[in-house]
Amino acid sequence: MEKINIICVDDEREVLESVSRDLDYFSDMFNIEECESAFECLALLEELDAQQEYVALIISDHIMPEKSGVELLTEVAKDNRFIGTKKLLLTGLATQADTIQAINNAKLDNFLEKVWDPKELLQMVKELITEYIVEKGIDYEQYIEKLDAPTLYRLLKSQS
Amino acid sequence: MSSQYLKYLLPVIVPFIILILPGDSFGIVGLTLIEQRVIAIFAMAALCWVLEPIPIFATSVVIIVAELLLISDKGLWFFKSPSPDLGHLISYQAIMATFSSPIIMLFLGGFFLAMAATKYRLDVNLARVLLKPFGNNPKYVMLGLMMITAVFSMFMSNTATTVMMLSILSPVIALLATKDLGKVAFSLSVPLAANIGGIGTPIGTPPNAIALKYLVNENSISFGQWMVFGVPFVVVMLFIAWLLLIKLFPTSTEQIDLNIKGKFLKTPKAITVYITFIGTIILWLMGDIHGMNAYVVALIPVAVFVTFKIINKEDLKRISWDVLWLVSGGIALGVALDQSGLAKNAVDAIPFGNLHPLLLILGAALLCLVMANFISHTAAANLLLPLIAALATTMQSLLPYGGEVVLILAVTFAASLGMSLPISTPPNALAYASGNIETKQMAKIGVIIGLVGILVAFAMLFIINKSNFIG
User: Is B259 left (phi over 0), alpha (psi -120 to 50) or beta?
Assistant: First the structure.
């Protein structure tokens, strides 16, 4: 089975823990990584890339010291090595300017406001991971129990 | 009628007229109905490839289907009705087999190697390491870039190589002053090197593979033999192109800094790619010491890469099937010309025998060069090589000059040398898209390289012939 990672980035420990708790559903098939800063996330990305592991999704907070979430996701969006990696911004304090930047430059796939509904987050991640797996040509059958069926059907239909 | 409709009408009307003309109006004695239909299909192919009313690979598919319907033994009943001058129907299997001819398999193997190399960043990492010794002097950086581009395009498609090198180069070019001619020189260096480099190996560019199709039996050339004359030709041409670039478009920049980031991947999959890549090339170069020819060797990387999931289902869809089909159509055209007997009859009917063989080689090469400047290199080779091959087999007077091999190679090389316009080749178009080059500048260097290339090819073929290297 391929190693597929989901990375969560937030400078607040509690938020990070609560996100990973909500994503526990995926933890037996996917690798869930926690980063406390954008720099930690970039270092982790280098490491995962050297191992040629898949990075399916980055869930990032926006307001963080030194480097913001939008800056981080913009960098990832421009990096050829992570084409296809899904990006979710999870934030309560984004101004309109931030949001515009996030959409135009970081090419966000999804936006979720703090405080979030765990069910909504789970569903969003399911859909994004399904998209990633199909787009990358990874054998979806082995992950099928964790994927979102309607999304899977839609994507496979458009492919055949 | 406006000329924009002409490109759609001509490829339909001209073949139709050819089909309904009486058989004796072509000046070929004993022309059969099948042969007449082959002329019509050939005319359609030529018009479609030149005028491009439909994509060039679509033309190839249409050729194959038209052959199946009009001249195959399982075609439409109407076209098979017995008649004394029907001629020889071609087996439908022979026509369909062009989709999977050994030439196609050779290219498929090449595509797999290139795709795996790109996916595991072998190409960029090699470029980074190989460019280092060339320092910061723009002249030598350009030489390095051209050499690496040429080497890569021997194994990858010319287009893929150009894309990779231009993406490395574009941030550097952007830093040069607006009026600096170095911008032109650097932008041109990549497509020139990619086009020239493709000549180096049988899998470098489709025209080479098509040539192999006609170099059979006593004329056959192995992968290694091709490189023995292909690589020196590439080296000489690259050097000439480099000198021209730095003379015609001197840069005013003193220093240039190519900053390519990255590390060689060390995962098991990446290492499998490295070993398979090197192994395949070694097997190709060894000739048939191991009993396998280049076509058989080409399928080994295909098996290895799919087994180890290096190329997955999604990657498989990204193979340039259109290029493979384009070549198939050319092969099918050759099969029809040859097996219907038309090629031989037509050549007999035209008094080429009176022509001086050298004049013929030169004329054929120049014709191919001109065509390749305006239409796809592969299409030019597809159209000319079957005719040239038929011509060569019947011309005894060619023998002192190297016979069939020399004529076919001269035309093949000419097909790759057509690069004076943005429309000549995809690499040219990509470089033109950078906005740094004017068509005039591309044409200036392209025409010189084309003509000088033909001369160099002649000199080389002369040496090959004198040293009895082939045949």
Answer: beta
pLDDT confidence bin for B124, thresholds 50/70/90? confident
Q: What pLDDT is recorded for position B470?
A: 57
Closest Cβ opposite residue A137 in set B263, B270, B312: B312
Closest CA to B327 of B214, B207, B415: B207
Give the separation between CA B409 and CA B125, rounded to whole angstroms.
34
- Which residues make Cβ contacts (< 8 Å) with residue B349, sequence separation at least 6? B27, B28, B29
Residue with tokens 């490189």: B227
Provide the b/e sequence for A81-90 (b: ≥16 CB within 10 Å).
ebeebbbbbb
Residues in chain A closer than 8 A to B263 (CB atoms): 50
Element (H, E) at B177: none
How far is residue B113's CA from residue B124's CA, in Å, rounded to a whole number?
14
Which region among B53-62, B137-146, B159-168, B351-360 has the lowest average model confidence (pLDDT)? B351-360
For A119, the token pair is 């069910």
Q: How far is CA B315 from each of CA A136, B103, B130, rounded to the nearest angstrom?
A: 9, 22, 27
Query: What would the pLDDT profile of B131-182 be if each residue is shown by its tens digit?
Result: 888 888 889 999 999 999 999 999 988 998 998 899 888 888 888 887 888 8
Is the preceding omega at residue B406 within 30 degrees of 0, hence cis?
Answer: no
Please provide the distance, in angstroms rounded to a whole number, between the alpha carbons at the two ends of chain A.
24
| Cβ atoms within 10 Å, residue B26 | 17
Put simply, the answer to whether B314 touches A136 (Cβ < 8 Å) is yes
Tell me the DSSP string of B241-264.
Answer: HHHHHHHHS----S----------
Residue A7: pLDDT above 80?
A: yes
Q: Do A52 and B265 touch (CB under 8 A)?
A: yes
pLDDT at B450 (0 to 100): 95
Nearest to B329 by CA among B89, B44, B58: B58
Give the C-alpha distances (Å, rounded to integers) separating B195 from A156, B158, B159.
Answer: 38, 6, 9
**Res. B471 pLDDT band, cuts 50 70 90:** very low
- pLDDT, position B178: 79
Average pLDDT score over chain A? 91
Cβ contacts of residue B467 below 8 Å, gap of 6+?
A: none
DSSP, residue by residue, A31-50: EEEEESSHHHHHHHHHHHHH
d(CA B393, CA B357): 13
Amino acid letter at B343? A
ipTM above 0.90, yes or no: no
3-state SS class at B163: helix
B-contacting residues in A 31-90 (Cβ below 8 Å): 50-52
Q: Residue B18: name the closest of B37, B31, B3 by CA.
A: B37
